Amino acid sequence: MGKKWLNIVYKEKNSTRLKKHYREWADGYDSDLKDWGYAYPSKVKQILEKYISIKKGSKILDAGCGTGYVAEVLKALRYNNIVGIDYSKDMLRVAHSKKIYKKLVCESLSKKTSLKGSQFDLVICTGVLTSGHVGPSSIKELIRLTKPGGYLILSISEKIFSKLGFKRELEKRSNEFNYIKLSKPFIALPNHKDSARSRMHTLQRV
């Protein structure tokens, strides 16, 4: 299937069909992302090394963790207190095999989760806040889960930032966080002709 998957999952509007797509893609997902030059792991690593400082035992949420591809960089940086949440049990099956996470939760970020609020020192959400996946309303939930003084690292596609309401939602909640760093636009998948341009939004909850 290769390069077709990216267009399929980002154009899909039906959550049941989207879950089916990810079930079929799960085993080849990491290989495809590697081939496409997936930029988010290196961007997360850069932020953790240059712009924010958290202890190695800090509690981290990988929100929309998928197969754990981005969390591999957390493990390499010796963070080991990581919780993953994703609505695809098939992607979580792959994530579980990597032995990165202390806990994996199969739930959607599109509504309030069962997770206790204000518990994470860092919430990472990359490749998730986009068309066909998780909308701007999830930002409220991601902030709720972050400790006061904790950080959020969010990737949001430039193409849909204003169009789908992410800009408006961040402005609406601007009293709940401070901006630490807004990256320059970059191509999320440099080796894929249909890849979107994204920015990394690094926030600190007040």
Task: Describe the protein.
This protein has eight helices and eight strands. It is of the alpha/beta class and 206 residues long. Strands 1, 2, 3, 4, 5, 6, 7 and 8 form an eight-stranded mixed beta sheet that branches. Helix 2 runs parallel beside helix 5 (89-97). It has a single domain, classed as Vaccinia Virus protein VP39 (Rossmann fold). The mean pLDDT is 90. The chain is globular, with a radius of gyration of 16 Å. The longest helix has 22 residues, at 15-36.
Would you spell out the secondary-structure blueprint of this structure?
Elements lengths: L3 H8 L3 H22 L3 H11 L9 E4 L7 H6 L5 E5 L2 H9 L5 E4 L13 E10 L8 H8 E12 H4 L4 H7 L4 E6 L3 E2 L9 E9 L1
Parallel strand pairs: 1-2, 1-4, 2-3, 4-5
Antiparallel strand pairs: 5-8, 6-8, 7-8
Helix pairs in contact: 2-5
Structure in a nutshell:
The protein is 36% helix and 25% strand.
The overall pLDDT average reads 90
The geometry reads as: globular
Low-pLDDT sequence parts: none
CATH class: Alpha Beta
CATH structural fold name:
Rossmann fold
When the domains are counted, the total is 1
Q: What's the helix count?
A: 8
Just name the CATH architecture.
Answer: 3-Layer(aba) Sandwich
Q: What structural category characterises the helix and strand content?
A: alpha/beta
Kindly state the percentage of residues in helix.
25-40%
Q: What is the gyration radius calculated from CA atoms? A: 16 Å
Main beta sheet: 8 strands, mixed
Order of SSEs, N→C? HHHEHEHEEHEHHEEE
Cα distance spanning the termini: 44 Å
Number of strands: 8
Report the sheet-strand fraction.
25-35%
In CATH terms, the superfamily is Vaccinia Virus protein VP39
